[in-house]
Description:
By secondary structure, the chain is mainly α. The chain is built from 17 helices and 7 strands. Among the domains are: 34-184 and 191-238, no CATH class; 340-383, no CATH class. Strand 5 and strand 6 form a beta hairpin. The radius of gyration is 46 Å and the shape is elongated.
Amino acid sequence: MSLKQFENTIGKKETKGKEKDASSNIVIRDQNIETVDNFNYLGCNIANDQTQAKEIEVRIGKAYNAFNSLRRIVWYRKCISIQAKVRIFKACILPVLLYGSEIWCLKAVEEQRLNTFYMKCLRTLLGVGRGGRMRNDLILELSGQPSLEKILRRNRLMWFGHVNRMDNEEDRPMLPEKVLFSSFTDAKRPPHGVKLRWKDKIAKDLTVCEIKNWRREVQDKEMWRKTINKEVKSTTVRSDAAHVMHEHKERAKKRRTDERLLDYNKKMNTPPSTTTVINVDATCSICGRTFKSKRGMNIHKRVCIQKQSTNASIDTKTNEMHQLTTASTSNKNTTTKNIKIIDLLIKKDKNQYVCPNSMCQKILKAQGATMHVKPCAKAWLIEQGVQI
């Protein structure tokens, strides 16, 4: 029994002349060993009060980092099947979370924290949020995975069987087995409020698994493995998992809309109704849009009137521009139709014409006369009243 437990039994009163944390002077190879509250050994955090609170925090943090690194690469990919995601989770995330769990003696709060993280990961694999309100047993059934409590029990019993099979060359128990079954003869534990030891956890696990003669069964390694893995067998993902998740998502969506409608009715002091009532007075006379309140309709009406006025001004401007363009094009057409360049040219024999430019005086044919005169005799065309 530790000094802390002894203090609790006597009403938190320390005995006179006793030190709570006695200083130790341990020297190994001329190095003084420092006394600390906890330290890391082989990746596990070991505390001086034999608790796993710090270790659980470290395990969850490392598992979360590993899970988050694969979030966009694996978990959010629709092209990867749920079965493949579960296999990746069991191979990459679960060993990080449960490293060293064979020797854990957890409290109910610590076990609940691990289970919360475990279920959160499975929900992410299935693509279901907490708003869907799916039960944990349904999540485990859809993913085909056992509960975390069963996995922890399997790990403890696996280490328990391994320690019991440890024998040296002389068929004598080795040090781990001696430590496991050893106890202080004079030590007494108080009957109330005592933490469960690893032995107590193993005794409960043997009772739950209905293992009666464990001394004989533990010697057969294959038989022991089948016994402890009986409740931890993983099954395949249910074939209708996608359909079940879609139904829960639709149900959650409908529930959220009903809750919003109920909150709105409470704010408006109106009785809840299953059908939405359209208020005739809250209808815009310009565009015909309906609103839940007159206030929203009045705000919309101002904007609607402004839009209508701007659209009307734009229409008038476009009509004026269209009229101007049509008038200009008609004038051009009339001038070009009334006056032809070929009629103004001097015609000679054999259907030939002379260029009116005094510097050119080129003999032209009727087919290319107009195309030649336009760039060559611009001044002459302007004098004749022809628009180029």
